[in-house]
Structures are given as C-alpha cells and as structure tokens.
Amino acid sequence: SVDTGIADATSTVNYLDDSSKNWPPSPGGFENLIVEITEGTGEGQFAKIASNTATRITFAVAMPVAPDTTSQYRIGFFGKMAGEISSRAISKTIRDIAPDAVGTFWLPETGNIDLSKYLASSWGIYAPTTTDMVINCYLNISHDGGTTWRRAAGYEILDADFVRDVWNTIDCPLKLAEAKLEVVIGTAHPAELDLMCIAKP
C-alpha cells in the first residue's frame, strides 16, 4: 500500500478527509490510484482517485456510504484495473504479500472463488520495478467443489513474460468452476507484491 489511515468526520461520499496527512497534491499526487475502506463504516468500498490535496482525496465515482471516524483506509496501486472498478458492479479480492522466501502464495489465501456467480473474472499481479523476484502465476480450476485442483492451460503468466511496474492480468471467461490464483516465487525479494481478483456479476 502507498499509505493508510483513518478518515475524518468531514468525509462524504465524494471525498475522504484525513487532517493528519500532508500528501503531495495533484497533479502528481494519487490520481488514478485506488482508495479502499478496509475497516469500519463502508468496509469493502473502494474508488478510483480523481485528485487529492494535502489532506483530502476526491473520488472519481462516489462511494455508496460516506466514510467516518471508524473508517480505516488504504491507498494502493490498482489504477490499471480502473475500467472495471469504475462500474462498481464487481466483487473483488485483494492481497498484499512481501515474500522474503521462495514459496507458493494463493489468492484467496484460503478457499476459492465460485466462478458460476460471475460473467467473467480478471486476476491481476503487480510487482514494482525494484524487485528481482522470479514470479510464475497460474490460474487453478476445480470442477468438484474445490476438492481437487489443476492449473488451467493457457491461463498463466510465466516469469519470462512478467512485466514490472504494471498490472499483469489473467482474464478468465470460465464460469462452471471454482478458481484461485497460484503464485510461485522462485527467487525471493522483500518487496511488496499485490494480487487482485475482480469478478463481474
């Protein structure tokens, strides 16, 4: 995440205030990033950032419920998915990891996403340019309710094709299955790796 905090009482459905901050203002601030309410009033809501001042973030699309003093938020690098996010007619799952060892990571961390509920899903992976980790990503599918899993051929991003500093996406039109994303770190680097799934109902 770029930053986190707690909203002020002056926040509305159109903007979030945090008087404790001193952000670099737009242009060149947080525009086209995403602000997400992670706890409290409005939990689960998120919106593309249109602009910001030192203490106020203005949303590109109004949130359904205004943040308040119970609303914890984070700002993240989800701008590449803004086209889907702007409709707000979505289900999303987000995870940040900072792998300092080789291993396998999953999105979601536990369970899976039932694709039968959605028209399509898009799975995104983002790593900053400064990372030198080796990343291989595979969409896994189950046709027996999540008992057995297999990698879906043609739905992967191998390290040779992985591009740093942009969202690498796997777009999945499959419906009659459960799915989860397998991320295999072959060479570790202690930098944040962001994972996200957007599913359109």
Automatic annotation (TrEMBL):
This is Uncharacterized protein. The lineage of its organism: unclassified sequences, metagenomes, ecological metagenomes. It comes from marine sediment metagenome.
